[in-house]
Design a protein that fits this description.
Helix content: 25-40%
Structural class: alpha+beta
Shape: globular
Length: 230
């Protein structure tokens, strides 16, 4: 499996810091429970003194969405949307142990964390500008086609695994009970993104190991080393 951002993405967003992790031995029966609560507390502490929209991590993604021609208050990064929901409800629903931990880590670091079932991916994932013919499996059950020029996660079969970059993942590769290996992607654009993404990966590794999953490989990409092959 290969993951990469195209040169055009790096040229448009030179501050980008993508962090990647492969997780294996995934089981749906694990209960992360208290481990998520400790991460929730970190998010509560930040939200107690500022709104999610004022966090530098979120502001950087808002600028990126504006640069893509999207209204940042209409299309929010996954991290901002999660923080908004958490601020209102003070908790998150339980979905799947891997997703629950990743959502909690996303809250703690205010960075988007995508979790992709690798068995639903054809050969590679490339973060690139859409041409418009690609297929996106919406949660409504319909098949959508991204707008030409939209930033997408696409595989070798032109299946779209995320639309509008960090806005929404596809139903096709959502983690479920049958998932046994997954790719985790977290991306930052703010000034301290390199240190923060590295810290996020370290935290995620510790949390996943604690519940018995196996984070077997990880990497941080750069414009000079834009490709990760597992």
């Amino acid at each position: 499996m290969v993951f990469e951002h195209t040169p055009a993405i790096w040229a448009a967003f030179p501050a980008l810091v993508p962090g990647l992790m492969l997780v294996e031995d995934i089981r749906p029966s694990v209960a992360p429970g208290p481990r998520c609560e400790a991460l929730f507390e970190r998010a509560r502490a930040r939200l107690a003194t500022t709104s999610e929209g004022e966090l530098p991590e979120v502001q950087a993604w808002r600028r990126a969405f504006s640069a893509m021609g999207l209204k940042p208050t209409q299309y929010r990064s996954a991290a901002e949307a999660l923080l908004r929901r958490f601020r209102k409800e003070n908790t998150l629903p339980t979905l799947h142990p891997l997703v629950d931990i990743c959502n909690a880590v996303s809250l703690a670091y205010a960075l988007p964390v995508a979790v992709i079932d690798l068995d639903q991916v054809e050969a590679f994932i490339q973060v690139r500008y859409a041409q418009g013919h690609e297929d996106y499996a919406a949660f409504s059950g319909e098949t959508e086609h991204p707008e030409p020029g939209e930033v997408i996660f696409a595989d070798a079969a032109d299946q779209v695994h995320a639309r509008r970059w960090t806005f929404r993942q596809s139903r096709r590769s959502t983690v479920g009970d049958a998932t046994r290996r997954a790719l985790i992607v977290s991306e930052g654009l703010h000034a301290s993104a390199h240190a923060d993404v590295a810290a996020l990966l370290d935290t995620l590794t510790a949390e996943l190991q604690a519940i018995g999953f196996r984070p077997s490989h990880q990497a941080i990409l750069t414009a000079g080393v834009p490709r990760w092959e597992v």
